[in-house]
Amino acid sequence: MRQTAIPAMWMRGGTSKGLFVKTSALPADRALRDRVLLAAMGSPDPRQIDGLGGAHPLSSKVAMVSLSSRPGIDLEFLFAQLQPDLDTVDTTPNCGNMLAGVVPFALESGMVQPRGERSSFRVLTLNTGMAADITVPTPGGQVEYEGAARIDGVPGSAAPVAIAFLDTAGSVCASLLPTGHARDVVTVTGLGFAPFTLEVSCIDNGMPLVMVRAADLGVTGLESVAELNANAGLKQRIEALRLQISLAMGLGDVSAKNYPKMTLVAAPQHGGAISTRSFIPHVCHEAIGVLAAVTVATAVKMPGTVCEGLAQLPGAQGVEGATTVSVEHPSGEFSVTLQSDPAAPAGVGRAALLRTARLLMRGEVMVPHAVWSGAGRMD
């Protein structure tokens, strides 16, 4: 049977990778678009054997990119999170890792032109209305992927992609502190375990995150990813907590959502500010998401959170009141620079960080003609 060809690129952005496609190449109808994306990625199937997905949430992602007509915005980015074994396409949360590939994709596809040796563009993430200035090296008018920048969770080195977020507070929730408090006490109930009470910090500074001290869940927070993924009892309690606290965060029923992310925190072990194990939300992350790291760094800097007493921050701030927070994760660390701003919520201003990206494949992704004939493209 015939298939429908969709021009696309497969790119790594930070510690994720996925399908990058022009929004105009997809159906205008949202329900049909979602069916196309599911077919392209091979979901639902745990192996995603009939699609491009890599059988893991970190490689089951799609970036839809378009030029913007909004004043002051160059590009618009709609992120879609798919799950290997589910038929859902979630466009509610952000993804800071995939964001790192947006400008390289736009340059590679001819959507925008280089702006000298370093090209900066303002990108609006449509999922939450968050804007960021993204700068990539473009010597000789070409995207440069080779360089000396290293990020933990990705082997080798690459050219730096600098991301400066303009406004991350309350990206999905109504505010930076969705419950109104830096720390809450919650009693969690559920089938299969006795009720338990613990303290949590619920913060949304780019990603809704629930942070809990690992020790309060009976683990050290230093376990390997494999050990945590194999701990069914722990994951059951984390999910019960997620479903319950989400109501207090104003997020409603999140049983079919990919947020809030759940993060276990512990004292740092390798010279950083805090140690983390992040669930996304049902699988332990091999590293930590970009915006989850921003939110954890916010919790470290903010008084009264569950990080208090565990975190170790440098004694002095850097240039212009900026503080760099090193967030330890299973495969290394992630440094986030937070600008102090007395007028901002909790005194935390803009966040800046460094990622890398690489073009892995360009061509066409094929979807069955029975799913989509190619009619009704947005262009």
Protein model, in words:
There is one protein chain. This protein is α+β, with helices and mostly antiparallel strands. It has 2 domains: 3-160 and 358-368, Diaminopimelate Epimerase, Chain A, domain 1; 184-354, Diaminopimelate Epimerase, Chain A, domain 1. It is built from 6 helices and 17 strands. It has a 17-stranded mixed sheet that branches. Strand 9 (184-190) and strand 10 (193-204) form a beta hairpin. The radius of gyration is 20 Å and the shape is globular. The model has no long low-confidence stretch (mean pLDDT 94).
Structure summary:
This protein has 379 residues and is an alpha+beta fold.
Topology (elements, then pairings):
Elements: E1 3-13, E2 16-22, H1 30-41, E3 61-67, E4 75-82, E5 89-90, H2 96-99, H3 102-108, E6 118-125, E7 130-137, E8 161-165, E9 184-190, E10 193-204, E11 208-213, H4 225-229, H5 232-248, E12 261-266, E13 274-279, H6 290-301, E14 322-329, E15 332-340, E16 348-355, E17 357-368
Parallel strand pairs: 2-3, 4-6, 11-12, 13-14
Antiparallel strand pairs: 1-2, 1-17, 3-4, 4-5, 6-7, 7-8, 8-16, 9-10, 10-11, 12-13, 14-15, 15-16
- One letter per element, helices H and strands E, the order comes to EEHEEEHHEEEEEEHHEEHEEEE
CATH fold description of the largest domain: Diaminopimelate Epimerase, Chain A, domain 1
The level-1 CATH class of the largest domain: Alpha Beta
State which percent range the strand residues make up. 25-35%
What overall form do the CA principal axes indicate? globular
Main sheet properties: 17 strands, mixed
Percent of residues in helical segments? Answer: 10-25%
Can you tell me the number of structural domains? 2
How far apart the termini lie comes to: 25 Å
Q: What's the pLDDT, averaged over the residues?
A: 94
- Judged by helices, strands and strand pairing, the structural class is alpha+beta
